[in-house]
Structures are given as structure tokens and as C-alpha cells.
Amino acid sequence: MTKVVLSPATSGKTFNVKVSAINDVGVHSTVSSPSNITIATYSTAPALPTSISASSDDHAITIFFTNPADRDLKGVEIWYATSSGGSLSLIGSIDGAPGVAQEYNLNYDSATFSLNQTYYFKLRSVNTSNVASAYTSEVTAQFSTVQTSDVTMNAISDTSGSIVSYNVNPESSTQDSIQYNSSSNILNGYMASEVTLGTIDSTVAGFLINANAHVSKRTVGSSKYAYAIILQKLPTNTYWTKANASGNYAVFIGSSSSTGASTTDGVQGNFSVSFIDDATGITSTTGTKYGLFIYETTETTDQWWVFGGTGLTVTELKR
To answer: Model pTM greater than 0.70?
Structure first.
């Protein structure tokens, strides 16, 4: 007996079959009388999909599941509701072989879905006779955006008040005296800006430091130089030290000053630097400071300065 497999075969469909024989030289016999073959229908519902889970991001939701092992499986339907146990709507269906792990990808569509809305998904199996199983238990997912409540700014305490600007007037003749490298060593200059850090989370690997200052010096004598340096003061210290990875001080104004310049001519210079400082010794502490300090080494008398630029900013870098 010879067996022929007809595929695909749909439950309940009738096939009209005729056969004929053929010999080695290609001569056919007469065709047999037709036989009607009806594919059996299945009134028993297939089993439920298993191993159901869902994942999501701001653009897509993915439903994961495993098909039941029923031989007459046609596919799996995906349904959703906007509340737990609520009225279900069909999203779509996906065909698949029995027992195979599958996934259904749902892309965000603003006409149908909303951001930050929790959706409740249930699945059911359908066989080739279009008999459906019961619904599975529900899983949830949502198309999400980043909420401001999800963002914490641990690195800088009180953003509006953490940067302290000195010499806020257009002109100033008042110098700042700081302790540098030790409590007994005094350095005179101008603290252009200062940032105080709050409690630093253990996930912070370091900081991106950006410093910028525009300085105008109106009284110009001989050999007048201005330097800029990025300082750091740990909570355990009473004095400032040079910030790690900041490099050496920078000469940025006055290196070619004319000795005969008048008090209204002056000189100008712009200082900018960016570097990454690690969080060693700072993590989990409170009150570490960074400072942008402008100073002179060849004179001690007060001079007139005008500060501009963006000052000093600190951005935390996560691990």
C-alpha cells in the first residue's frame, strides 16, 4: 500500500481525490473514480500556552510564551485589557508549531496605547478547527518614559545654591585667602566659583569637571601673570589641594603684558578645562568641594578683575 500525505490540511475540509498509475516509460493508466476525504474536526480545546512573561521599554512590549504540545495547534492569540480582569481586546495572533517557545512583539502606537499605562495581557491557544482554549493568567507591561521622580541628583547638593560665586560685582579689589596644601600655607587670589557635593552614591565612578572663566585685569604692571587651578577640599581637610587628574596650573593671562599700559587698557584672558576625576575618597561622604581659583605669584597688591564665563560644573558619572 502506498501512502500520500496532503499538506496543509484544514480541519473539516473535504478533499476530492483521484489517482492514476504510471509506468517506467511515463504511460498513465486511466484515472480512478473520485473519493471524498474529509479532514476530521477537533471539538476538544487545545491546552494553554505556558511560561508566559512580558518585558517592555519605551517603544515595544514583548510577550514570551511556549506553545502547547497539541498536534492540531494552529496558533496563539494575544489579548489585552487596561485593568486587571477587565474587558479583553484582541491584539493579534501568531502561528506556531506544537511545543515551541515563541514571542510576540508589540510596537507602540499612540492611536491605540498610552505611555506609562499598565496593560494586562492574556493568551489562548486555537486549533485547526478554530476551537480555542481558556485564557491564561494575566501578565503586565507598559510603554514607559523616564519620569523626573526616577532621576536623582546625589552628586551636587542643592543645585540652586551649591555654586558660590565670588566677585559678583563687575569690578572687585578684594582677594580671597585660602589654605593650600596645608593649614599654614596661605594663597591669595580669587575663588571664581565653588561647588559642594552631597552624599555620593556607590554607583558613582567619578565626575566630569568643566571649568571656564573670563578675566579682565585693568591695572597692568610689569611681569603680571594670572594662573588658574582646579582645587578640591575633602570633608576631612581644612585646606585645599589640587584636584586629581586636573593637570598643573595654567598661565592664561598677562604673559605678554606691556609695562606701560594704562589702567584703562588692561588685558584679558579666557581659561577653560575639562577632565574626569575619579570618586576615590569621595564616595559616601558629604561636603567635598571643588573650586576654580584664580591667583597671582608675582604680586600681592589688590588688582581689579572682571569675571565671566560658566564657572565650575560637576557632573556625576555612573558605573
So the answer is: no
